[in-house]
Every structure is written in structure tokens, then in C-alpha cells.
Amino acid sequence: MTTVLISGASVAGPALAYWLQRYGYRPTVVERAPAPRPGGYAVDFRGASMTVLERMGILSAVEERATRMGAMTYVKETGKVTAKTSPAAFSGELEILRGDLVDILYELTAGTTEYIFDDSIAAVTQDESGVEVVFDSGTTRRFDLVIGADGLHSNVRRLAFGAESSYIHDLGYYASVCTVENHLGLDHTGQIFNVPGKTVGTYSARSNTEAKALFYFASPDLTYDRRDATAQKAIVEEQFAGLGWEVPKLLDGLRTAPDFYFDSISQIKLDSYSRGRVALVGDAGYCASPLSGMGTSLAIVGAYVLAGELHAAGGDHVRAFAAYDVRMKGFVEACQQQAVDGARWFIPASKWFLKVRNLTYRLMPYLPWRNVIREMSLKVGNAIELTTYEGLPQQHEVPRP
Ligand SMILES: Cc1cc2nc3c(=O)[nH]c(=O)nc-3n(C[C@H](O)[C@H](O)[C@H](O)COP(=O)(O)OP(=O)(O)OC[C@H]3O[C@@H](n4cnc5c(N)ncnc54)[C@H](O)[C@@H]3O)c2cc1C
């Protein structure tokens, strides 16, 4: 049985493990965190990824835990509403909290996949017949293939492809998200306040029992310690200090938040998603950034295609990885372009464009092209033709070592 080590147990990793075990492979997932990571922001699905969820048999489970968000409201400093966007603009066809999705994927695969938590790959050495992997824990094991599903700052990519600086393209923005009190009493909705180059907002989550605060800002490259949350919070506070609306209250929430995300808004661009017996899936291979709204769809579809191509090539990884590159390229490019286009609208750079945006959103419901945002994002979500990979054997239990 072909053995595959997958690094990362978020979205792409468990989704890939699901398909691999269905095709008769033996997947092992190694995750740096001590358990599946809960919480996090809302992520959404559009287009082809909905079909993949259905083929995985988890569409209804995701629907059951969907956020069911309504329109997003844009407000002035005084809180007065200036514009609204339809649910489809922010929440796609189906939206769920990232942690809830990870739960569903873990539950789906835990019985058939070996999971190793609290560990990471320290070294990979490839030869003709396989890959020798040394783990941080000191264990050494051999696998037929190794897949990096370990996100924007992928460890596997660094080990097999080289330094991140060669592949990462910053879009010139930073994003921060944390859980706060739903102090505005938002009911399945969110509010956004802008000044040029900065977007701050809050949206309700978990049936309005809590809210997420989001802070996005334009900035040249910042130097900071990626493990120092206190220093990162200080950056956010400095960026948003002195702003009106609910910003002081949201910054209070940020200081004591139970969770915290901060990173540059960046994309990963590679000519090929593999090097020999090592390949990448999801953000590790082709991160489109949060501004695309397509990262989760890319991860789910990418996992489906990668496993499907391995199956179609009868396990010949050279042929499969080449086909995977070809099938994903156009889809990845469309999703990445959507982030570049979307940035102008989500984080307007000038007072003038901010006015244009709000006016456009205000008029949108009355214009003949009122559904343009939904249609454009659906077009991107469907910018891949899904192959039906034949010959799925019955689901089987993989014995745990
Ligand atoms: C603020 C924000 C908002 C977003 N909004 C949306 C949205 O609305 N719609 C959407 O589709 N997408 C959205 N995304 C993007 C989406 O979250 C990602 O595209 C998606 O999670 C990618 O999944 P992934 O499995 O490839 O990587 P990730 O979710 O990044 O997971 C990587 C996993 O690898 C693990 N890992 C990292 N390093 C190691 C290591 N050395 N060893 C072992 N494990 C490791 C991590 O702990 C993590 O579990 C958003 C992202 C952010 C940050």
C-alpha cells in the first residue's frame, strides 16, 4: 500500500487524506498543534468546491454548522449606515467557521488516517524509491510520498523547494482577526468602517453569542517576531489608534481576546507544485490570501484533484503531479487575481475611492448588474472543470500502527 505523509491538519491535509484512503493509499497526517485547531474566522465555499463537499459526503454537515450570515453593512464614524453588500459578497454560497470545518474533516478521517499531533517534519531526503523523513520528535520513518498542506508559511515547501522569500508575494496589506464580545448585538450580520488604507469591522458568530473583530491595513513590509502575539497586537493597536466608531471597543477586545491571528496578506506563486516525491496542496502551494475568499475552496478542490490524479495515473507520481499542475493552474490564477481586484474595494486607498465604493454599493440593488459581485465570484469558483475520477473502492479502515 502506498504511504503518504501529509504535513498539516487544517483543511487541505485532512481533505487529501480522505480522498487518498478512498483510493487505497495509506495517509499519515502530522500536525504541529497538539490537537485539531479550533476557533478562527469564517471561511466560505463557492462553485466547484460545493460539488467536492457533496462528493465527500459532508455537504450537509457543513450546511448544518453554516454561519447563515446576512448582508454586511458599511458604516460612517458615527455608526450611520452608508451601504450594504449582499450575503454572497462576503459569505459565498456556504460559510462556516474554520474551526468547525476542521472538526468535520477530522471526524471524517480520524478512523481511517493516522494522525500525529504535536510534531513536525525536521528533514526530508528523497531517493529513487521513497522519502526518508526525520520528525522533530526524533523519529525517522520512510514514506512513498510527502505532501505539504501546512499553509502559507509551509515547512515542507521550505524543506523541499527552498526559502519562502522565493515564492511569497506580499499584496501590501496585513490582516488581524480575533474573537470579541458581540457588544453591538449583531444578529447574523457585520459592520465595517473604513478610513483610507484601513478596514476595521466586526461580525457576529456562533449564533450571535460572540463576534469576530477584523483589522486590515495597507503597509509596506513590517519586521516582527511571528511567535510574539503581544508585539503583533501592539502593531494593530498602533495602526488603528485614534480612530472613531467602535474601534476603541474592538481594540479593547483585541487585548484580551482568547485567540488572535495576524499575518501579511500574501500569495504563493510556484511554477510547479511538486519537487520529485514531494508536493504541495492548499495555501502551501498556491495561497490566494484572505482577500480572495477562495482559499478554502482552493484547498478542498486541490486535495480532490491531487488524489484523483494519483489514482488516475495508477500511483505514478511523476505523471500525477504534472497533471495536477496543469489542472490547477488556471483556477489558482483566477483565485489569486480575485484577491488583487478585491483589495481595492475592501481596503480603499483614498477618500475619493471610498466614496465611489460606498456609492456603488448603495446603488447596486437598483442597477441592472445588481448581481455582479455574486456572478463574478461564482465564475472564479467555477474556473476549474472537475474530473470525475472513476473506480472508487469501498471505504476501509487503515490499521493504526
Ligand atoms: C483572516 C482570514 C480570513 C479568511 N477568509 C476566508 C474566506 O472568507 N474564504 C475562504 O475561502 N478562505 C478564507 N481564508 C483562507 C483560508 O483560511 C485558507 O485558505 C485555508 O485555511 C487553507 O487551508 P490549508 O489547509 O491549506 O492551510 P491552513 O488552514 O493554513 O492550515 C495549515 C495547517 O498546517 C499546520 N502546520 C503549520 N506548520 C506546520 C508544521 N511545521 N508541521 C505540521 N503542521 C504544521 C497548521 O497548524 C495548520 O493546521 C481566510 C484566511 C484568513 C487568515
Automatic annotation (TrEMBL):
Which superkingdom heads the taxonomic lineage of this protein's source?
Bacteria
**What is the protein name for this chain?**
FAD-dependent oxidoreductase
Which InterPro entries does the protein's record reference? Answer: FAD-bd, FAD/NAD-bd_sf, FAD_aromatic-hydroxylase
Q: What PANTHER family does its record include?
A: MONOOXYGENASE, OXIDOREDUCTASE-RELATED
Domain FAD-binding, which positions?
2-312
Q: Which organism is it from?
A: Kribbella soli
In the UniProt record, the signal sequence range is none
The terms under GO molecular function for this entry are: FAD binding
